[in-house]
Write a structure and sequence with these properties.
The complex is a heterodimer of chains A (about 90) and B (about 160). Chain A is of the alpha+beta class. Chain A has helices at about 10-20, 25-30, 50-55, 75-85, 85-90, and strands at about 10, 40, 45-50. The model of chain A has no long low-confidence stretch (mean pLDDT about 85). The chains are: A alpha+beta (about 90), B alpha+beta (about 160).
Amino acid sequence: MIEFERKPYYSPRELAEALGLHRTTIDRYIREGRLRAVRLSERTYRIPLGAVLQLLAPEEMPPVAHPRQPDGAADAALDDLRAEDRSLVEA
Amino acid sequence: MRIRLSAQALGQRIASLEASLRSDGEITRPIPDREPPDETWYLDIRVAAPGYGLPQAAVYRYQEWWHPHGGAWGLTAYAYDYRFGPSLSGVFGHHWHEMRGIDPSGDPVYHVKCVDPARPDPDPHFRSFRMDIWEARDALTRLDAADEVPTCAGLFLLR
């Protein structure tokens, strides 16, 4: 794994410098969908840390665990959302 | 318009979501379990941001409720949230669920839930429109990636 400073988001220029790549390479990765980027405006992008790690070593990403959901979790969660509405009903 | 998917398509959707959301942070509690047939298929994915060894600054939570209907699964409610700020007290979320205070018929209502931690309002529900989960993800990650703290400015109350 390449060593680089970890921060929540990188600009394409920062990432290019950190990884020793050309800025156009980063832009191409974004265009091709190989690198997830968040578009803030027409010309401004930010790349999340997780996307960089996925690009560099996807096999080293922590595996996704699938704990069993508790019985009734779906109803309980929906009830929580509806509860927020209760004050509106009472108004 | 309600989204309907086969069981296989819904399973693929969840797998695809998990693979994609890992680039936004660390998935801390993925629960795509399916309850017995003819019950709810409840999706609840939480993503801690930025994750991967950095202090947690925000959490995304994607919840969907699917119910069987006519041989397929139909989306009946969703809540896509971005939580931020002190003790994650700030919320910006795109929701679609029953709100009898707004629509007594019980039909789900599209809305934004916005809680500005600096100015919490007793009624945090605002007008909105249908959001696909991928659109919501784009919108929520933009809030996180921007340098500004999200506010509720410019939103219109539901009532």
